[in-house]
Specification:
The protein is mostly helical. The protein contains 17 helices and no strands. The chain has a domain of about 130 residues: Up-down Bundle (Four Helix Bundle (Hemerythrin (Met), subunit A)), CATH 1.20.120. The chain starts with 5 loop residues before the first helix and ends with a helix. Keywords: Membrane, Transmembrane, Transmembrane helix. This is Cytochrome C and Quinol oxidase polypeptide I.
Length: about 400
C-alpha cells in the first residue's frame, strides 16, 4: 500500500502545460521564420499535450484529491498513472516526427485505455460518503463523457482507411471527440469541483434545483453536438436539435448562476480574495463560452465559424486557456495543490487576453476586409510568449518550494 504524492501529480500536469505553451509559440513562429519541422505534426503534438497532459492530469489530480485524499491506494493506481505518462511522453516524442502514424497511434491508444482504467478505478473505489452528493454525480457524468468521446478516435482509423481524410465523416468524428472533451468532460468535471466547493461552504439550495440543472445541462451537452454538423447542411431536425441544445444550456447556466448569486456572501467569505477573483473571472469566461456556442445555433454564425479558422482558434483558446485553465488554477490553489504567485497569474492572464484580442482581430479583418498591420505575427508571438513564461514561473516556484 502507498500514498500517491498528489502534488507531484500536479507538478507533472504543469510541466505538460509549459511544454504545450512552448509548442504553441513554435507554431506561431512558422509565420515569421522558416522552421525545420512539419507544421501539422507540431499542431498534433501541441493539442494532445495540452488537452491530455495538462487538463486531463490536472482534473484527475483534483478528482483524486477530492475522493481519495484520506485513503490508502493499491499499486493499481500507480500503474495507471505511470502508464498514462508513458503514453503522453510517447505522443510528445512521436507526433513531431511522424504525425498520425504507427508509433503515435499506439501511444494514443494506450492513453485511451489508461483513461478507461482511471474511470473504472474512480467509480469503483470512491468512498460511500461521496456517492450521493451532487459533486459526485457531476464528476461521474464527466468521466462517462470522457469515455464516450473516445468513440471519435476509435472510428477515425476506420474512416481514414476506408473513406479518407476528405470525407465529412472524418471531420465529424474529430468534432465529436472535441465536443465531448471540451463541452462535457472538461465542463462537467470543473462544475463537479465547483459543487464540491459549494458543499464545503454549505450553500443552501433545494435538491430539486440541482435535479433540474443537471437534466438541462446533460440534455444541452448531448443535443448541442449537432451544432457541429451545421456545415454539412443536414436535415432540419439537426438544426432543431442543435438549437434546443443551446437553449437547454442557457437555461441550465441561468439556474447555476442564480444559485451562486444567492449564496454569494458565503463564497466571498469562504475564499481568499485572490481565489475569489480567479473564480469570478472563470465564471465570466464561462458566460462568454456559452454565448459564443449559442451563436453558432444561428446558421449564419455557424457558417462564419466554419469558414473562418481564426474564430474557431479564438473560441478553442478562450475555453482552454481561459475558462478551463483559469478555473483549474483557482481550484488547485484553493486545494493547496499548487502555490499560485499573483504576478505570474496576472502575467498569464495578460498573455491570454491580449492574444485573444489579436486572434479575433485577425478573424474580423479577414471577414470584413479591413486593413491588416504588417507586424501582426511578430506581436502575436511576443504576447503569446507571456503564457509559457508565466506557466514556467508557476512550475519553477512550486518545484523550488518542494
Amino acid at each position: 500500500m502507498f500514498r500517491l504524492n498528489i502534488k507531484n501529480h500536479t507538478y507533472i500536469a504543469l510541466a505538460y502545460f509549459f511544454m504545450a505553451a512552448a509548442l504553441g509559440i513554435l507554431l506561431r513562429l512558422f509565420y515569421i521564420t522558416p522552421i525545420a519541422a512539419n507544421y501539422k505534426y507540431i499542431i498534433h503534438t501541441h493539442s494532445h499535450i495540452a488537452l491530455l497532459g495538462w487538463v486531463y492530469l490536472a482534473l484527475t489530480a483534483i478528482i483524486y484529491r477530492l475522493f481519495f485524499h484520506d485513503a490508502k491506494l493499491s499499486k493499481k493506481y500507480r500503474y495507471i498513472f505511470l502508464a498514462t505518462n508513458i503514453s503522453l511522453l510517447g505522443m510528445l516524442f512521436s507526433f513531431p516526427f511522424q504525425g498520425y502514424a504507427v508509433v503515435s497511434i499506439i501511444f494514443s491508444t494506450l492513453f485511451l485505455f489508461c483513461s478507461y482504467f482511471f474511470t473504472a478505478y474512480t467509480l469503483k473505489n470512491t468512498p460511500k460518503k461521496h456517492r450521493n452528493t451532487h459533486y459526485y454525480k457531476l464528476i461521474k457524468a464527466a468521466l462517462w463523457y470522457m469515455v464516450f468521446s473516445s468513440i471519435g478516435p476509435w472510428v477515425l482509423g476506420a474512416i481514414m482507411s476506408s473513406l479518407g481524410k476528405t470525407s465529412i465523416w472524418y471531420k465529424l468524428s474529430v468534432y465529436f471527440y472535441l465536443h465531448f472533451q471540451y463541452n462535457a468532460w472538461f465542463l462537467l468535471g470543473i462544475l463537479g469541483i465547483a459543487f464540491y466547493l459549494f458543499y464545503q461552504l454549505k450553500f443552501t439550495f433545494n435538491p430539486s434545483e440541482f435535479k433540474r440543472f443537471f437534466y438541462l445541462l446533460n440534455s444541452g451537452v448531448i443535443l448541442s453536438f449537432f451544432l457541429s454538423t451545421y456545415w454539412t447542411n443536414p436535415p432540419l431536425i439537426f438544426y432543431l436539435a442543435g438549437g434546443l441544445g443551446s437553449l437547454f444550456l442557457v437555461l441550465a447556466f441561468y439556474k447555476l448562476f442564480a444559485l451562486i448569486l444567492r449564496n454569494k456572501m458565503k463564497l466571498k467569505q469562504g475564499l481568499s480574495p485572490f481565489i475569489y477573483r480567479i473564480l469570478q473571472l472563470a465564471s465570466v469566461l464561462l458566460i462568454g463560452k456559452i454565448v459564443m456556442q449559442s451563436l453558432t445555433a444561428i446558421p449564419f454564425f455557424a457558417d462564419l465559424a466554419f469558414k473562418n479558422l481564426d474564430f474557431v482558434i479564438g473560441y478553442l483558446h478562450w475555453v482552454f486557456l481561459g475558462f478551463v485553465s483559469i478555473a483549474l488554477f483557482g481550484f488547485l490553489n484553493w486545494l493547496k495543490l499548487i502555490k499560485l504567485p499573483k504576478k505570474a497569474f496576472y502575467l498569464y492572464l495578460s498573455g491570454f487576453l491580449i492574444s485573444e484580442m489579436l486572434i479575433f482581430y485577425k478573424g474580423l479583418v479577414l471577414w470584413l476586409g479591413l486593413p491588416f498591420f504588417s507586424d501582426y505575427f511578430l506581436i502575436l508571438v511576443l504576447i503569446s510568449a507571456l503564457i509559457p513564461v508565466a506557466t514556467g514561473w508557476i512550475l519553477g516556484l512550486n518545484l523550488k518550494s518542494k
